[in-house]
Amino acid sequence: MSDDVETMVDERLSVFDDEPDLNDWVEVMCGAAMVVLGMFHLIQPGELVNPDVMRWFAAAVVAAGGVWAGHGLKDMAVKEIRRSIAILEMSEAETGPDHGLIRDVLLNPGAYSEFLLESYAAAWEDGIITEEELKELRSFQEILGITDEDAAKMNLEAAISSAAKDGEITQQEEEQIKKAAKEAKEDADAVVEDVKKKTKKKK
Prior knowledge:
By secondary structure, the protein is mainly α. 80% of the residues lie in helices and 0% in strands.
């Protein structure tokens, strides 16, 4: 794995780094030591205290050591799983579609429709929309799953808004509006007349 990928994985995992990995190893080793010590005193309780009491105490130490070591192993396993998931998600992002984006588009179609409308408005900012801009907008449309009819209406709306902004409709803007109206299956002449009337009222 390259250094760049390693860095990106570490950045994605940084949110989970609530404790150093060394702590996990300490938990495992201390837990294992407690288990060994407890097992020893289960077999050889000695004569320091009553043998039965020592065996009960040793059993408790074994149980506590097992739990402690298990906790450390669990933390290590969780971190490895998180790392594997992060690497897998990054590899999918490099080789396939962004499923997260697709899901977001499907769940929030209105927000992305508004994005396309704003993109049309930005393209019409200078009063003219070029073929290159149209091609880019159509690619957005396809990605967002917006129909040609809806996209044409957005284009017409943006064209009208751009043309009426300065309070005057030029011949070139009129032709652009007519073209957009035809694509939106609207009466081109009626749309132009309506825009001119609204523009005059604003004056």
